[in-house]
Amino acid sequence: MKNKIFILASIILVVSSIFFVNKTDNDYDKKLGGKHQITGYKINKLDNNESEVIFSTTHAGKGKMDPKVKVLNGDDYIFKGEKKVKDNSLGKYIVEITYIDTRVQKMAKEKIKNDNEYLVKSNNLINKVDIAYPPDDSMMVVYIGCNKKPTIETTETNKELKIKLK
Amino acid sequence: MKRKNKFMLISLILALLVVFEFSAYATTSWEYVSKPYIYSRSSWGARSPQDTIDPRGSGDKLIFHHTGWNFSSTDFNATKQEIRDVQDYHMDNNGWSDIGYHYIIDRNGRIWEGRDESKKGSHTYGYNDNIGIVNLGDYEGIYGIGAQQVTLESYGAMCSLAEYLTYKESLDLPVVYIHGEFGDTACPGRNMATWVFDDLRAYLYNNMVQN
User: Fold this and answer.
1) A137–B123: do the CB atoms touch at under 8 Å?
2) Which of A59, B59, B112, B121 could disulfide-link B39, Cβ–Cβ 3.0 to 4.6 Å?
């Protein structure tokens, strides 16, 4: 009897651990795939010299996105399609954020594409945000164009990634 | 310097140059391997590339990937649609010139032509002068849970394609690699990685015969 109870408890434990590990966040799009997904984005103007870009995120499991962040000059080459080009439309400085195994959900992509005009009017620091896909099936890059050279501070929780520019 | 000595010196220099040229390009020559059947681009309804693509150059690796999209069908038409979906994603979402991989292997072990093999790939940043081969499916899942298994048929196709390309391109072993060896990515998933490391490499070592 004791053995049966022990076996049953073990089975319940294993099944429930599989359930919890396999449970993705509710807004994870299984068809889109990727270890992480960007579900939304917004920009907050903190004051005249500080702004923050917030990406809402969801994940297929545990683990951080931990993107690589670099500040480029406006005339540096950036990814566009499979190639690297110069893009003057971003601004004097470009923040390059490189993600691995991350996909952008459709609504977030539309918002990033359509919000640029609003951005220019709403804050002093950020000109434009754009997404690029380098020639690698696991990479994605977000570019934030600025007119002043920013210092960058990133913080990540399992629900969002904040990039503070000052 | 006497004429004879000059002549010998020049001949020696020329001979050394010729030997150096040949050794710089020396690659392994393999015994004949027949070409497996490969479905053409037109057979899956491929779109034409939307830009010119640079030539591939002389990469010496076969790099394996997965799509990361769960796909289990062996149906011919469903497979064609899945490959078209991959191409659409690469061209319309990613802004690439064409599907990024040179070959696609489906769950039934069929091999499909992707991007023109003479053109640079778009699958592994920094290593796109190598041939990219993708298996349809998700072989990683969520830290392994829900990961698809490599079918025996698709493994057979990986072997025959890798063997043929090794022979055709005179590549040196081990020749087969996974995407994750060149970047911090889960691609092509843990279930495929073990097949490449443990089985496919051994298969090539045991079966390829040098000339």
Assistant:
1) yes
2) B112
Distance (Å) of CA B152 to CA A71, B127, B157, B199 = 47, 28, 9, 12
ipTM for the assembly: 0.85
Q: How far apart are CA A77 and CA A86, in angstroms?
A: 5
Cis peptide before A67 (omega within 30 of 0): no
Looking at per-residue pLDDT, the higher value among B107 and A25 belongs to B107
Average pLDDT for residues B188-193, to the nearest whole number? 94
Chain B residues with CB-CB distance to A82 below 8 A: 51, 53, 95-97, 120, 122
Q: What is the pLDDT of residues B124-149, one digit of tens each?
A: 999 999 999 999 999 998 777 789 99
- Per-residue pLDDT tens for A41-81? 888 888 878 888 899 999 887 778 889 999 999 999 999 99
Q: Which residues of B touch A28 (CB under 8 A)?
A: none
Peptide bond into B174 cis (omega under 30): yes
Bridge partners, B145 (sequence order): B142
The distance of B130 to chain A (nearest Cα, Å) reads 12
A&B contacts, CB < 8 Å: 75
pLDDT tens readout for residues A92-120: 999 999 999 999 998 888 888 787 767 76
B124 to A136: CB separation less than 8 angstroms, yes or no: yes
Q: What is the per-residue DSSP string for A70-126?
A: EEEETTSEEEETTEEEE-TTS-SEEEEEEEESEEE-HHHHHHHHH-HHHHHHH-SSE
Q: Tokens for B174, please give them.
A: 């081990």
